[in-house]
Amino acid sequence: MKEILTFGRYLKDKFGEKVYKVPIALSGFTCPNIDGTSARGGCTFCENESFNPSLNRVEKIKGFSLNMNSEDNPLLQKQLSELESQFKSISEKMRRNHKAEKFLVYFQAFTNTYAPFETLQALYEKALTFDGVVGLSIGTRTDSINHQTLHYLQKLSEDYEIWVEYGIQSVFDKTLQKINRGHDYQNMREWITITKDYGLNVCGHLIYGLPDEDSDMMQKSFDETIKLGVDSLKIHPLYVVERTALANAYRRGDFQPISEEEYIDNLVKSLKELPQNVSIQRVTAGIENSTLISPEWCYNKQRSMRNIREALAKEGIKY
Asked: 21-34 pLDDT, tens per residue?
């Protein structure tokens, strides 16, 4: 039976014990397709609070957000304090509940290289001082990275586990336009290749069930992402949450979410072709709160995981 290399097993093999990701959300961060640099309004499906509960504890700063060209950052001390308090709260819970000892600090919400280099340096180095931290995982976009940051992360990777997580979602430009991504696939291909040239670990995010995409398109996105040499993947279905442009399209009848059966079928097709050296960090996603509009099957992640494991087992794959 083929066994999928989960990210947890990859880390356990490397560090000799389970390593836990601690998600972080900081004031002042945004995305270039929210602030108007690339587009306005953000991705049509995105409501960050639904993806990262820590954002509900972060103060919103009206009229201010960082970008890569910001000349100063009046929020830096606040961000450093938020980073420390969030890590302490979440890691202590993980220590109590799971006897966790080692951690990756996961800069999750918004675009976490979309700030002045000095801000990034201060935040990343602060995170690496916390007890038990063995590295960083940095969620970002390929239009919000540069050589200076990648060179710096390369240096950090000499002593720490460093991951750059890029939202790919789809390799089709017409889809990227529909979801208001703000850049094209050529930009992704270029900067993922550059990131790999720096010797850094790359995790690619893919979404199945994007508007007007069929099974062949989903598999094409998977195949092309593998060809880029990513080290890890996150795959999940597109679901509809409140306060998004996608929610408006759904209510107008312009978007129909992917069914659980179709999603699992496409996921299994992809994982059958997954190289042994590429780890998987996510195979589904769910929101167990009132912000989820559709599909209903995304409300129960535990049930979905059971169905996914059963479907994979039928194909001789262990997850």
From this structure: 999 999 999 999 99
